Amino acid sequence: MDAVVVEELTKRYGRTAAVDGLSFAVPQGSVCGFLGPNGAGKTTTLRVLFGLTRATSGRAEAAGRVGGVLDRDGFHPARSVWNELSLAAARAGRQDADIDAALAAADLEHAADKLVGQCSHGTRRRLSLAAALIAAPDVLLLDEPASGLDPHALRTLRERLRAHAAAGGTVLLSSHVLEDVAATCDRVVVVNRGRRVAEGELAALLAQRIRLRSPEPEKLLAALDGLDATSDGPGTIIVAGADPDTVGRAVRDSGAVLHEMSTQGALEALYVGLTEASR
């Protein structure tokens, strides 16, 4: 079952189309990355799904209770972190929610009595996610949730999003942090100029697309002759259309020093290739 459905969505501001006939779906129980350059229409699409902006045409719907994080959190600077989270629970009709446990899950117990206006950007982002999750939403819509987070907080974010999906929830997150998307999401939707350029399971999109890093790229390219191998900057090669075993054997036989062989790193090349091709 699809928890998020966007169908022929168009949103115009005057003569400018921020979103132009966009269609995609996100299955229930998945964490879907929503990728695209600035101005691609990601935030506008999320705002339509939230009900904050009316579509010019088409539809964008999320099943069940919807929560999430947009660019502005709306917190009152003179309230404490604890009070803001308590208010979020009350607004969602969850007055019995364990606020202390929610703060601990967000690694915010140390900041419970701190005024929001005195909190760092990263702390406010963690509070935003905690406020969204305490409402027990079926669908989480997140706009750049990793912004301002340190590595520890990023790891916690990934774990919480995967846990939400494993419990039957659904996540649609907009992000520019490609490696984080690769480590968190099982699906991606790539948009550019308000239109979809790719959609599907991340593993399938990255299948047979491998990034190699080596101080001896010429030796690697020679060993990969016959495969679709291209240079992608100093010391970096992208191989498309070959399985990892085939590439691994070629690398081994070449005798070249190898610093990295990954499909996660290929996400950047895939993203750039898709968005540049759609210009």
UniProtKB/TrEMBL annotation:
Domain (ABC transporter): residue spans on this chain: 4-218
PROSITE patterns per record: ABC_TRANSPORTER_2
Keywords noted in UniProt: ATP-binding, Nucleotide-binding, Transport
GO molecular function: ATP binding; ATP hydrolysis activity
Database matches in SUPFAM superfamilies: P-loop containing nucleoside triphosphate hydrolases
SMART domains to which the protein is assigned, alphabetical: AAA
Pfam families xrefs: ABC_tran (PF00005)
Membrane-spanning intervals of the chain: none
Coiled-coil region(s): none
Family: Belongs to the ABC transporter superfamily.
Name of the protein: ABC-2 type transport system ATP-binding protein
Origin organism lineage: Bacteria, Bacillati, Actinomycetota, Thermoleophilia, Solirubrobacterales
